[in-house]
Design brief:
The structure is a single chain. Helix 14 packs across helix 15, helix 17 crosses helix 19 and helix 18 packs across helix 19. This protein has a 5-stranded antiparallel sheet with strand order 2-1-5-4-3, sandwiched between helices. Strands 7-6-10-9-8 form a 5-stranded antiparallel sheet, sandwiched between helices. Strand 6 and strand 7 form a beta hairpin. It has 5 domains: 76 residues; 118 residues, PAS domain (Beta-Lactamase); 120 residues, Beta-Lactamase (2-Layer Sandwich); 124 residues, PAS domain (Beta-Lactamase, 2-Layer Sandwich), CATH 3.30.450; 100 residues, Arc Repressor Mutant, subunit A (Orthogonal Bundle). The chain is of the alpha+beta class.
């Protein structure tokens, strides 16, 4: 039954009630009241009062209906205009007929500027084809309805909304992603329209893009990292493996996807691994770390460290896991080498007189060897042992410098350090020790442990004290001897001064003697030589007399006086005198009765002593300048 039919039936009912009331009023008109009995009048008054009450009740019911209508209108405003999504009605020609406030807010426009405008104006041009295709599909479905028409405002029972995702334009030109869900209806005039729900999905789109980027980053990381990364389902079957499996285990992804990880595990490790996984599940641990051996494609086993993390569904149940494996062959080899070194170190320490100690900085655990305790008079564990014991036993004056050396080595990444300090002995005295430490750092230069030895310096200190006493004694003796030598030096200086005076006096006397000798040669000898030359002499006698005269003249000249300062030998003086006269080497050799080679040697020595050496200056000319 339609609303029009309901309203028509209600009017007929009211008409019949009115006629009935009018008939009653006619029987109770004033001209008939005189004919009525008092009882009838009272009954009539009673009916009128009841009727009045009924009218009042109807009036109250109408008022409540009006209030409900107003409330319904307000609710419609809340549900329609203030909805979290946009609602709009579009004509068959894509003209906006109605729109709620949310639609206007999404598009950044007043509602009045939306109505009557094509909806395509608010759709990015690149996405308009998507909308038009949706719009066409909606009305194609409507025209295919077997009934051939739709009632006003109704929807086909079998029709479902058509959805699409497009970018819509705001007033300022910016865009946002929107999801449009549309369905076809007919308006009151029977014209086809489309009701559209507009949802802002910008945030979900960003989430999708972030998810895609995250997946790309995850794949990029797993495909370029050295660790073997894999995804398995709840049965342990490989669903994904990274390319690094080929580098580490020789498998390409196609070789192992679809098989279980346990099929690659060393048989001796299976029980341990299954137990670890079960314990992890029971204890609610999301991640476990263990070591195992996986079979290489070539047949041998590779030691691996596995980090396994459970994947859970929305219900909290485990649906699979992520595994990251790392080849630890090098680490195992290093551990074996370290174990061997530790064994060797134990043998060395056992035969050494130095006290060994080892401090694990991560766990803050320290080991003191029996000899370490013996150095300070204790037996192992006789007193509480911790990493601060050595500092507690240290002499107060040594703590600052020892701590500075140790902390400085840790801060600067210095592997080896040494420090001297004193430790309190059980008997109350201090034992001097030389502590040498070796610090182990990780790849980030963080210190992990410190190992070292303490050498008892008591004997060395005693020797040093003895040496110091001897050194002090020697220094005292040196001081005394220095004082004695200073006194003798003063005496020698006085004697030297006296000697200088005497030597000067001797030089003066020598000079006077030479001057007297020269005067005597000039005044007493040369005149007689001149007289002898006047006498009868043969050629040989005259030659020798000329030579004698020449020598005497040379003695009496400045040449002989000046040439003495060059420390020439007597023979070199004779050679120099003849050279100055212009005699050749042959002539000098004949006159002196020497070989020519000897004269050459003398000439060379004379040049050297006169400072001529390899100079090209003439010896005869230079000797002439000395007069």
């Amino acid at each position: 039954m339609t609303k029009k039919e309901i309203r028509s039936g209600h009017a007929v009912h009211l008409r019949k009630q009115a006629e009935k009331i009018a008939l009653g009023k006619a029987t109770r008109s004033p001209e008939n009241l005189a004919k009525m009995l008092p009882e009838e009048i009272m009954e009539m008054l009673s009916e009128l009062q009841v009727h009045q009450i009924e009218l009042e009740m109807q009036n109250e019911e109408l008022r409540r209906a009006q209030e409900q209508r107003v409330a319904a209108g307000e609710s419609f405003f809340d549900f329609y205009d203030l909805a979290s999504v946009g609602y709009c009605t579009v004509s068959g020609k894509n003209i906006i007929l109605e729109a709620n406030l949310t639609t206007a807010t999404l598009l950044g426009l007043p509602r009045s500027e939306l109505v009557g405008k094509p909806i395509s104006r608010f759709i990015l041009k690149a996405d308009q084809d998507i909308y038009y295709l949706q719009h066409k599909q909606i009305f194609d479905l409507t025209s295919a309805d077997s009934t051939g028409s739709l009632r006003s405002g109704s929807v086909q029972p079998e029709q479902s909304p058509q959805a699409c995702e497009i970018r819509m334009l705001k007033k300022d030109g910016s865009t946002f992603w929107a999801r449009l869900e549309a369905i076809a209806v007919k308006d009151e005039n029977g014209s086809p329209t489309c009701r559209i729900v507009i949802s802002n999905i910008a945030e979900s789109k960003r989430t999708e893009e972030d998810l895609v980027r995250s997946e790309e980053i995850f794949r990029l990381i797993t495909e370029n990292m050295m660790d073997c990364v894999s995804l398995v389902d709840v049965n342990g079957t490989y669903k994904y493996v990274s390319p690094s499996y080929r580098e580490t285990l020789g498998y390409v992804p196609g070789d192992i996807i679809g098989i279980t990880g346990f099929s690659l595990t060393h048989p001796d490790d299976l029980e341990k691994i299954v137990r670890l996984h079960l314990e992890g599940i029971e204890q609610g641990r999301r991640e476990i770390i263990y070591q195992t051996r996986l079979r290489h494609k070539a047949g041998h086993y590779v030691p691996m460290e596995i980090r396994a993390r459970a994947l859970t569904g929305s219900d909290g149940k485990i649906i699979g896991g992520v595994f990251a494996g790392r080849d630890i062959t090098s680490r195992k080899q290093a551990e074996d080498a370290l174990h061997k070194s530790e064994e060797q170190l134990k043998l060395v320490v056992k035969g050494s007189t130095d006290a060994y100690w080892d401090w694990d900085l991560i766990k803050d655990e320290i080991f003191y060897s029996p000899l370490w305790w013996k150095q300070i008079g204790y037996t192992p564990d006789e007193i509480p042992s911790d990493s601060l014991l050595w500092e507690k036993l240290m002499h107060p004056d040594d703590r600052k410098i020892a701590d500075k050396v140790f902390r400085g080595a840790l801060k600067n990444g210095q592997e080896i350090y040494e420090a001297e300090f004193r430790l309190l002995h059980k008997d109350g005295y201090y034992v001097p020790v030389l502590s040498r430490g070796f610090i182990t750092f990780n790849e980030n230069k963080q210190p992990l442990r410190v190992s070292g030895t303490n050498m008892d310096l008591t004997s060395r200190k005693q020797v040093e004290e003895e040496l110091k006493r001897h050194r002090d004694h020697l220094e005292e003796m040196v001081t005394d001897r220095t004082t004695e030598l200073a006194i003798k030096n003063t005496t020698l200086q006085e004697l030297n001064t006296t000697l200088k005076v005497l030597l000067k006096q001797r030089e003066d006397d020598k000079k006077d003697t030479e001057e007297k000798f020269v005067m005597n040669v000039r005044n007493l000898v040369l005149p007689f030589v001149a007289q002898m030359k006047k006498g009868y002499l043969d050629a040989g006698q005259r030659l020798y007399l000329d030579i004698i005269e020449k020598y005497l003249q040379d003695i009496a000249t400045p040449l002989m006086i000046n040439i003495r300062q060059f420390n020439l030998t007597p023979m070199e003086i004779k050679v120099a005198a003849l050279v100055k006269q212009g005699k050749s080497t042959k002539e000098v050799a004949e006159l002196l009765g020497l070989a020519g080679s000897s004269i050459d040697v003398h000439r060379k020595n004379i040049r050297k002593k006169l400072g001529l050496g390899n100079k090209k200056a003439s010896l005869q000319s230079y000797l002439g300048t000395l007069e």
